[in-house]
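lol forgot to send this yesterday, sorry. struct tokens for the thing we talked abt
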């Protein structure tokens, strides 16, 4: 079954490039093109794509507002948003994660990495570029009062020791396969622990799990995994 993708960008040439790129992958299908954020929300409700490629800076309803509208809609629970922008500044990263985005990449990303990112997000995982992750952590450490996520308990007391250990590894950027290998677990078991931790902490995805790991003090800048 193909991953259904909606492309939202106000610049026609850039949008056409993304459409062509996505369409070139045999397992991906473009189901719509949106000209701005409001159009993206309308088309998401009509087409129910698996992933929305969302530009941030668009006229009218911008990409961040559109992302929040999509992720807050109970009828669009299965729709994931992958934010694409030329600006990987910390305020955009934080805003995108707060809005519910499952991924954040710069528009300079390599084509093969973008295709892979769509697949990762469609599978229910979260994805941040290394630049975005660094910016996210930096922002939350320097201005924690502005960075707290709604709906989550910053205390990790609700987690088991194993869950805390795995959350720490997630915060260091390890993949499920890496975590499984490190702890001598099956990938399925590692993923189950991650999912349980997200449920207990009220985190939408792993990006928010990373934020909570830093906010709680479980992981600090400069720590080694």
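and heres what i got for the seq, position by position
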């Amino acid at each position: 079954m193909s991953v259904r993708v909606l492309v939202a960008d106000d610049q026609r040439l850039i949008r056409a490039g993304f459409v062509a790129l996505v369409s070139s992958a045999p397992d991906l299908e473009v189901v719509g093109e949106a000209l701005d954020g409001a159009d993206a929300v309308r088309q998401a409700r009509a087409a129910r794509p698996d992933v929305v490629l969302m530009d941030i800076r668009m006229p009218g309803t911008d990409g961040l507002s559109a992302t929040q509208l999509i992720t807050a809609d109970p009828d669009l629970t299965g729709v994931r948003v992958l934010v694409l922008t030329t600006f990987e500044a910390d305020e955009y990263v934080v805003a995108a994660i707060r809005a519910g985005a499952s991924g954040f990449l710069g528009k300079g990303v390599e084509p093969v990495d973008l295709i892979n990112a769509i697949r990762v997000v469609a599978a229910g995982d979260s994805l941040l570029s290394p630049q975005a992750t660094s910016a996210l952590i930096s922002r939350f450490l320097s201005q924690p009062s502005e960075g707290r996520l709604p709906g989550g308990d910053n205390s990790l007391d609700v987690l088991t020791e194993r869950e805390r250990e795995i959350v720490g590894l997630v915060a260091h950027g390890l993949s499920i396969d890496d975590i499984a290998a490190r702890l001598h677990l099956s990938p399925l078991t590692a993923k189950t622990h991650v999912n349980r931790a997200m449920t207990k902490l009220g985190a939408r995805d792993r990006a928010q799990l990373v934020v909570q790991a830093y906010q709680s003090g479980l992981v600090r800048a400069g720590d080694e995994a």
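The two ends are 37 Å apart (CA to CA). anyway ping me if u want another try
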